[in-house]
Design goal:
The complex is a heterodimer of chains A (251) and B (374).
Chain A lengths: L4 E12 L2 E12 L3 E6 L5 H8 L7 E6 L2 E2 L5 H9 L1 E4 L11 H12 L4 H14 L15 H12 L6 E5 L7 H18 L2 E5 L3 H7 L2 E6 L4 E5 L2 H6 L4 H7 L6
Parallel strand pairs in A: 3-8, 3-9, 6-7, 7-8
Antiparallel strand pairs in A: 1-2, 1-4, 4-5, 9-10
Helix pairs in contact in A: 3-4, 3-5, 4-5, 6-7
Chain B lengths: L8 E6 L2 E10 L5 H9 L7 E12 L1 H16 L3 E3 L5 H10 L15 H34 L7 H11 L4 H24 L7 H39 L2 H7 L4 H39 L4 H11 L2 H27 L5 H33 L2
Parallel strand pairs in B: 2-3, 3-4
Antiparallel strand pairs in B: 1-2
Helix pairs in contact in B: 1-2, 2-3, 4-9, 5-9, 6-7, 6-9, 7-9, 7-10, 7-11, 7-12, 9-10, 9-11, 11-12
The chains are: A alpha/beta (251), B alpha/beta (374).
Chain lengths: 251, 374
Amino acid sequence: MSKTVKIDVKDLTVGYGDYVLLHDAEYQVNKGDVFIIMGGSGCGKSSMLRVLTGLISPLKGSVVIDDTDIAHASMEEVKKIREKSGILYQSGALFSSMTLSENIMLPLQQYTDYSPATIRELASLKLALVGLTGFDDFYPSEISGGMKKRAGLARALALDPDIVYFDEPSAGLDPISSHNLDDLILEINQSLGTTIVVVTHELASIFAIGNNSIFLDAETKTILARGDPKELLKNPPNEAVYKFLTRGEGK
Amino acid sequence: MPNRQKNNVQLVVQDNAAKIVLNGDVLGHDSDDIVRQIQNISSDNIKNITFDAQALGMWDSSLLVVLYETLRMAQANSIKTDMSGLPKNLQDLMKLAFADDRKPTHGDSQFSWLESLGKGTFDLWATINRVCNFLGTTLSSVGRFLRRKSVMRGIDFFSALNDCGPKAIAIVSLISFLVGLILAFVGAVQLQTFGAQIYVASLVTIGMCRIMGAIMVGIIMAGRTGSSYAATIGTMQVNEELDALQTMGMSKTDFLVLPRLFALILAMPILTMLSDIMGMIGGAFVGVFMMQLPYNEYWKYAFNAFTLKNFLVGVFHGFCFGIIIALCGCYSGLNCGRNADSVGLATTKSVVCAIVWMIVVTGIITVICQELGI
């Protein structure tokens, strides 16, 4: 059975001004994938994520999400796509002047017609889903880094998105919190059928959750490999990918 | 301060070979001279460089600088080097220093003056575009607010109002009192020579109400509130909170600019009135207690000099300054970079920009008032 393509990236060149980070990138993310964008520092992973989420425009090429090219879409179309996506930023990016509950209520107030009471209940439910029951009235400054990420994930899940993007979810977390977050990502993927796109260079996370991936290379500014990370480790297409996946051991 | 050894690193040149001899401890070595000597030997037809570290004692990074520069010079001039005379740890460190497998792909480009001029023009154009875009977006946010479609939260407005209103009263009162006091002192010195010291009351009243009250409040609020807006929003940029807002499809101007703008628009005229009053009290303090002017007489002259026209011009200045401070603060914050340094830069920019624009707008209002005979 053929898989439904959720994100179709074609002929994509990413950069800033006349500085090119990555050129002629082509790949597809299928519905329900846990898709990993991996590569060394400075290869353009986070910039790729910014392009996918419409925060920056690519220098060239298209990013088609559900039949809409986000790189060339109108504001209204971009808004519709964003309604169906959630993002967990590296730092959680929770609004510090709001409680966790208010953070989650914000997109619900913006995009839904639910009553205030329902919105509050939904926020509590989302917090419970990420293991933060009872933390509704806490401010971001009152919780740990791992909890901030969970709360950020709860906000990302507020509108029941089709796609959730994660920017370096394990960054700054201890191994156990990182492992727990990986489990949470898998649970969301499996129980809600959400397509997950993760930008990371954490090998443990890559192998634990990824079932599809691309490897970006800073030297050639291209995609050097595509596929299941575990398969890439077994049959590495080139030395750079193998070195990355084996923490620099090489063949 | 480490003892600077002069002769512990020596360069010996013989025929077509150079040898760097290391003796004793090389700690805090002033490497300038020896590095210059080493760089000069490239023109002496030197074919190879060796090292003698048999008598080397303790060493620090100052020795590494010498070795690194030597090897770089040798590499650039295709001179053979033999590091076998160095201890293994020094050899390893040098190998590490030259093992960089990545070169900068872009960096500080050298531009000719014409290119720099072109780049400057493009940058200026980009800035003008950004400012126009910001002003347009803010205007459309105000439009949305008037049509009740904005996502501005009431709580944010009241929080901003509390910050720029009640919390600013003490500093505005103090500074305005002192400014009134200074105005009175400066005026009194001149007026006393004509025996017209009672007109200090008129001077302070007109000065504070017409312009000084608004200017002082503007400067205080630019430094106190405008910079805080830039820092808060700039930090949100660093923490990716602005990205989060954008990807949630929420207008940054609705959410961040409008509450601050409305709060300052409301607070500034009121603070200006407060400043006028405090300045007049400061003037009275000098007039009554220092110059021994009769209390009733002082206030009679002060009230005679007070006109609604002057007062309203001052309050209007305050209103304009409120808009300027809020816009400069929010613009600087929204266009802040993504590191701590940028937040500092954004706060500085917001204050400088607000003060410059306040002066420009004061000039414009003054000319208009002059033309209209106000």
